[in-house]
Amino acid sequence: MERLSLVFNKYIFWIVLGLSIFIPLYPKFPLFNVPGTYVAVRIEDFLIALVALVWIITQLPNIRKLLKENITQAFLIFWGIGALSLFSGITLTHSVLPQLGLFHLLRRIEFMILFFIALTTFTKLWQVKTWLVSMLIVTIIVIIYGFGQQWLNFPVISTTNKEFSKGLILFLTPDARVNSTFAGHYDLAVFLMFFIILAVSHFLYFKKIIQKIILIGVSGLAFLLLAMTAARVSFFAMLAGVVLLFWITNNKKYILALVFLTLFAFAISPELRHRTVATFTVNIYGGGGPKYEPPPQKQGNTTKFSIENAVPGVATPSGVPIDVVPGEPLNTTELGVYRSLGIRFDVEWPRAIRAFLKNPFLGTGYSSITITTDNDFLRSLGEVGILGTFSLALIFFIIFKKIWNFTKTSAKDQKYFFLIGVLCGLLALFLNATFIDVLESSKVAELLWITLGIAFATTRMQKA
After folding, report:
1. Cα(437)–Cα(246) distance, rounded to whole angstroms?
2. How far is CA 365 from CA 91, 219, 319, in A?
């Protein structure tokens, strides 16, 4: 077994590097669906399982040392509480189907074990540099494919609803938002957000003009594609992360340039501009454009207002959706923004809060509050309660503290700027998590835990 471990150790880095490239680039084609949900098992799940098996073999000689580390113990506590919460949901609150809850628990373990695989695999700075270059190339491909979807009719694989998630080959309609290889524009936006922050951190580090030009070019295109997704939360979280990065590294002079770039993004992306304006006019101030006033209804047909049931001969606004209700905006962009916040306030968030109140300590178990909450903090409280949420927060606290303490004593070398970029990206991700379930999105979560594992490993590297 020890001999086999030595053989695998020789190649494990390249295996993990290949997985890091495969995850963001391979479309979400399903192999088979899980009953009770439209989440599917895909090739990447089997690849991660295979890599995890290889990694376990390589780590057998070091398993006791790994188990003694506080970060390992924090993960084990979180997984243990998740299992206890699932057992409680099955036996006490009866809020979980056993097979579905177990699938959700195993899926989270699958994502998070990538942290340890990266942590123990990356031992030299050249490996980190190789991974960063690979991610730069991956991002270029993602950008090219995203532009191709918008202007060259490249195919789209989406998981935004049950029908699309079957692996249908689609094409962007005029009003659809680009998603590249990520099966959803929100996932793509989070990926681009994190990349831009890391690219800016390395722009501040590199001295050679050619390196700066490459980073400006690729991050500029990523910035443009991010604007095209019209994902407001990710866009403004990116801005917050970059501003924080400039502040920490004492490069505040670049903030003014970021302001001009933001105005440029609003100029070239009408969808981002209109949805941002609608956020203030409709969601915050309750105003906006004209609201739907229903026409007189046919007597005896229905108790609901509907354009289809209007009295014959009554003029109605053209282009009004048949499911619009009184008081909703007539403008389609305002209507989308209005409903986007409304479903969170009226359905998803109250559902998570009710689950939390039902069992504050353990929640009602994984999968108990359906597949979407659009707020990772409330989702965690609802599914695994205070104990599970605090144990997850402990994991992030240990990671954050380890990286931050290293940067305070580190020289201003590449390790320093990489780690500062990761911290700022992580804080931007937390901002995203207030409106999007980023930790449950497979491509985003897998890449996140790999990145955090590499960052944690970087703090242990003494020599370049």
Report:
1. 27
2. 11, 40, 43
Instruction: Decide: residue 53, CB within 10 A, 0-12 exposed, 13-18 middle, 19+ buried.
Output: exposed
Q: Which residues pair with 170 in a beta bridge?
A: 156
Could you tell me if 149 and 180 are in contact, meaning their C-beta atoms sit under 8 angstroms apart?
Answer: yes
Q: pLDDT tens digit string along 290-313? A: 787 766 666 665 555 555 555 454
Same domain, 399 and 433: yes
- Beta strand pairing call for 40-42 and 30-33: antiparallel
Contacts of 144 (CB under 8 A, 6+ apart): none
21 and 166, same domain (yes or no): yes
Cβ–Cβ under 8 Å, residues 225 and 176: no
Sign of CA dihedral 315, 318, 319, 320: negative
Do residue 244 and residue 306 come from a single domain? no
Cβ atoms of 125 and 415 closer than 8 Å = yes
CA 434 to chain centre: 11
Q: Which amino acid is at 247?
A: W
Residue type at position 342: G
Q: Quote the pLDDT of residue 302.
A: 54
Non-local CB neighbours of 284 within 8 Å, separated by 6+ positions: none
Six-digit token pair at 159?
A: 């998981």
Q: What is the pTM of this model?
A: 0.91
Give the C-alpha separation, 282 to 252, whole Å: 33
Please list the ranges in the chain whose pLDDT falls under 50: 311, 313-316, 464
Which residue in 139, 144, 147 sits closest to 219, CA to CA? 139
Counting the structural domains of the chain, the total is 2
Task: Specify if 405 maps to a domain.
Answer: yes
Cβ neighbors of 50 (< 8 A, separation 6 or more) are: none
**In terms of domains, do 298 and 266 share one?**
no
Residue pair 422/198 in contact (Cβ under 8 Å)? The answer is yes
Residue corresponding to tokens 């992030």: 396
Query: 177-194, pLDDT tens digit by residue?
Result: 889 888 788 999 999 999
User: What is the C-alpha to C-alpha distance for residues 454 and 117, in angstroms, rounded to an integer?
Assistant: 9
Domain span holding position 321: 292-327
Written as one letter, the residue type at 107 is R
